[in-house]
From TrEMBL:
Organism: Pedobacter ginsengisoli
Domain of life (superkingdom): Bacteria
Keywords annotated in UniProt: Membrane, Transmembrane, Transmembrane helix
Phylogenetic placement of the source organism: Bacteria, Pseudomonadati, Bacteroidota, Sphingobacteriia, Sphingobacteriales
Cross-referenced PANTHER family: DUF420 DOMAIN-CONTAINING PROTEIN, HYPOTHETICAL MEMBRANE SPANNING PROTEIN
Keyword Zinc: no
Keyword Transmembrane: yes
The name this protein goes by in its record: DUF420 domain-containing protein
Alphabetical list of InterPro entries matching this protein: DUF420
Regions that span the bilayer: 7-26, 38-64, 76-96, 124-149, 169-188
One of the Pfam families matching this protein, by short name: DUF420
Length: 190
């Protein structure tokens, strides 16, 4: 491992910790009094970005299986950029809007017995998908960054070793992001 590898690995861990701390801080901070009117478009954009990333990850796999390395690289760069944009939109949205409660039909922030009965067991499915999505999103961030760095530097064997783990987790996080969006969107208060 050379100096550049050590530097970038440290940078990757710093980025991972900073992102995690920012997301945790968003959960603890109260939202500002006023919200920009466009903020309500963000969940839909975020869902669209997740769906696009899901498709691009599959396309990237197809390209590499066909040994089209250049198309694989370009697809991964686009997916990486979209994921960064997703993260920015996610942070901005959650700065202004706190979590939506699954099943909160009347948008009052409290689940009544009627609302709970209406969602029944789907609530448990939703929380399982959401929990695995969040945990794996935390885990996959440094894996994505390391695999991207190794692929970009043409460290093919080292790239393959980490992608074996990073790819299925990233794909799962992207797909479950879409599922979470589809399941929670009826309960947005906008």
């Amino acid at each position: 491992m050379n100096f550049n590898d050590k530097f970038f690995l440290r940078l990757i861990w710093i980025v991972t910790v900073v992102v995690l701390l920012v997301v945790l801080a968003l959960k603890l901070m109260p939202p500002p009094e006023t919200k920009p009117s466009f903020i309500y478009l963000f969940p839909h954009i975020i869902g669209g970005i997740n769906a696009t990333c899901s498709v691009l990850l599959v396309v990237s796999l197809i390209f590499i299986k066909k040994k089209n390395i250049q198309a694989h690289k370009v697809t991964n760069v686009i997916t990486f950029i979209l994921s960064a944009i997703f993260l920015l939109f996610y942070i901005v949205f959650h700065l202004y809007e706190k979590d939506t409660k699954y099943g909160d039909i009347d948008h009052n922030g409290v689940l009544s017995a009627v609302e709970l009965a209406a969602v029944e067991s789907t609530r448990y499915i939703y929380f399982f998908i959401l929990a695995t999505h969040i945990i794996l999103a935390i885990v996959v961030l440094p894996l994505i960054l390391v695999s991207f760095l190794r692929g970009f530097n043409m460290q093919v064997e080292r790239h393959k070793k980490i992608v074996r783990w990073a790819y299925p987790v990233w794909l799962y996080v992207a797909v479950t992001g879409v599922i979470v969006y589809l399941m929670i969107s009826p309960y947005y208060n906008f």
